[in-house]
Amino acid sequence: MTAMSQPLRSNCSHLKDHNISSTRFSTSLASLFKTWSDQPLVRHSLNHNPTTLNSPQPHHQQNQTKLISYTQTRKESLLSLIKSCTHKPHLLQIHAHIVGSSLILDSTVCFQFLSLISLSPPLKNLTYSRQFFDQIPKPNAIHYNTMIRAYSMSDFPEEGIYMYRDLRRRGLGGNPLTLSFVIKCCVRVKNLLGGIQVQARIVRDGHQSDSRLLTTLMDLYSICGKDDDACKLFDEIPHRDTVAWNVLISCCLHNSRSRDALGLFDIMQSETYRCQPDDVTCLLMLQACANLNALEFGERVHKYIEEHGYIGASKLCNSLITMYSRCGCLDNAYEVFKGMQGKNVVSWSAMIIGLAVNGYGREAIEAFREMQRTGVLPDEQTFTGVLSACSHCGLVDEAMNIFDRMSKEFGVVPNVHHYGCLVDLLGRAGRLDQAYQLIMSMDIKPDSKIWRTLLGACKIHNHDTLGERVFGHLMELKAQEAGDYVLLMNIYSSAGNWEKLAEVRKFLKEKAIQTTPGCSTIILKGTVHEFLVDDVSHPRKDEIYKMLDEINSQLKIAGYVADVSSELHNMGDEEKGYALSYHSEKLAIAFGVLATPPGTTIRVAKNLRTCVDCHNFAMILSGVYNRKIIVRDRTRFHHFWEGSCSCNGYW
Ligand SMILES: [Zn+2]
Ligand SMILES: [Zn+2]
């Protein structure tokens, strides 16, 4: 080896760890390295042999040609070694020879080696890559690109942005690829400002019609909540491929526009755009369907997945299970689960959570046991599912036992969701003080959701003093939402504490706090019908209200008494006059009865917790009209059938 390799080698900790000379060389490496050490080519090419100076020209040229071809062969052998390298000791030997020879000056060799150590598993190591990069005497844009790309996929994306700045400082131009990788880094850290600077560069360098670049930039705008800017960029993309459409769809999903996301599925395939959805599009669509309770649409996407041969992808199957469960269609979820090859922990968890939220607690616990029998190890998500299953069945002891085994046996540290399930469970069982003590004893900081769960339990059990205390904790977290005030008012109202109720109402009025309006949706033949309280905007409003009158008189015969005074949905209720008020889910259900043939299941999604009166209404209606009604409210599912509900009256 040449003398110059010594200081370089000692700079590199990876090389220091391995005694190169004592490492046994593989046969191919050994023969190659032997040739190199026998022929110190650096000296050859730099210092001409004095004898050749006097030699006639043809001989000298011959030597030159020989040298060039020899260098070329040596480089090619090394490149093929880099390509086939899979072991760390070999890697370190190659590294030593690159830095110890003239090949450190060769941009292709450096690029290949850098790609190997920064991008290709299993030898990928970013710290090591950075050390090698720093050894390259004159890195070019391609070397920078490799590093920025590696950072964009790593846990240190901001490093990629620093590298990009360094590249610019060195006066290297960079190319569209550089820009695309640096935007990806910006996406990872949500650095909008950085992205805007890169956009200016895109325009300056004349790349504004580069579809890929614009698509990546669109992703950044979407992630940073600038959906209008993202849409504007989409319009500017000259060739909108599936990736661009997918970014637009996920932009809608990020910004709670699931309905728009669904619409894009057909638009992208229309005559005008002729763009085929791919597996990623399907994943996004399933997510939108799950958000909207859009079962029919979900079934269409399922069919598309089967027709296009994506059904083998476990990610898609897992999403199908989640979509069907979230649409309250457990049979279909189970069908997909049953047909899956190689069920992983995500698949099992999706199924267990699906069973649990739909009220099939015992089946969920059985699935959990089956999962362990098949040798799949449960993770955090699985435990959230199985604990909430216990909660739905009121299995306090079983839950405590599982909670105990969770960390001891499976090494899963309980998170706030796991504690949330226990609080829900204790709340259901009326053990409110124990639930409160559990929250206070947690190692982790309680979040607003867990306090809200307990607040809900205080409402069910008319516990106004604890309710007040819990509300205090929510205020401490500055997390109290308008809905929590409504819950507190309901607690006071159930406990008959009218004085306090009036106080809260006055406070809300003074502060002009607005409650989220209740909104229910029902999807018929692919169209989403949305209802607010006392909504009169639906084109079939007259028929709907007529149907509601008819339902009310039918239900009265069956013993239904409108219970509108026991619960408030928002602060305006009192002023509006209870008797005339129709909550959004009643309107949606009435529309379902009106617009679908007898016996059809009615599926409604509601953004808030459903009230006692609407719950009774749906329960009795399911018996009288012989209809299955599935209502997904803010936290759980209610499967109404034959006059009862799967939640057993707890929600
Ligand atoms: Zn209601
Ligand atoms: Zn229910």
UniProtKB/TrEMBL annotation:
<feature type="domain" description="DYW">
    <location>
        <begin position="559"/>
        <end position="651"/>
    </location>
</feature>
<feature type="repeat" description="PPR">
    <location>
        <begin position="344"/>
        <end position="378"/>
    </location>
</feature>
<dbReference type="GO" id="GO:0008270">
    <property type="term" value="F:zinc ion binding"/>
</dbReference>
<keyword id="KW-0677">Repeat</keyword>
<comment type="similarity">
    <text>Belongs to the PPR family. PCMP-H subfamily.</text>
</comment>
<dbReference type="Pfam" id="PF12854">
    <property type="entry name" value="PPR_1"/>
</dbReference>
<dbReference type="InterPro" id="IPR011990">
    <property type="entry name" value="TPR-like_helical_dom_sf"/>
</dbReference>
<dbReference type="GO" id="GO:0003723">
    <property type="term" value="F:RNA binding"/>
</dbReference>
<feature type="repeat" description="PPR">
    <location>
        <begin position="241"/>
        <end position="275"/>
    </location>
</feature>
<dbReference type="Pfam" id="PF14432">
    <property type="entry name" value="DYW_deaminase"/>
</dbReference>
<feature type="repeat" description="PPR">
    <location>
        <begin position="379"/>
        <end position="414"/>
    </location>
</feature>
<feature type="repeat" description="PPR">
    <location>
        <begin position="140"/>
        <end position="174"/>
    </location>
</feature>
<dbReference type="InterPro" id="IPR046960">
    <property type="entry name" value="PPR_At4g14850-like_plant"/>
</dbReference>
<dbReference type="InterPro" id="IPR002885">
    <property type="entry name" value="PPR_rpt"/>
</dbReference>
<dbReference type="InterPro" id="IPR032867">
    <property type="entry name" value="DYW_dom"/>
</dbReference>
<dbReference type="Pfam" id="PF20431">
    <property type="entry name" value="E_motif"/>
</dbReference>
<protein>
    <recommendedName>
        <fullName>DYW domain-containing protein</fullName>
    </recommendedName>
</protein>
<dbReference type="GO" id="GO:0009451">
    <property type="term" value="P:RNA modification"/>
</dbReference>
<dbReference type="Pfam" id="PF13041">
    <property type="entry name" value="PPR_2"/>
</dbReference>
<dbReference type="Pfam" id="PF01535">
    <property type="entry name" value="PPR"/>
</dbReference>
<dbReference type="InterPro" id="IPR046848">
    <property type="entry name" value="E_motif"/>
</dbReference>
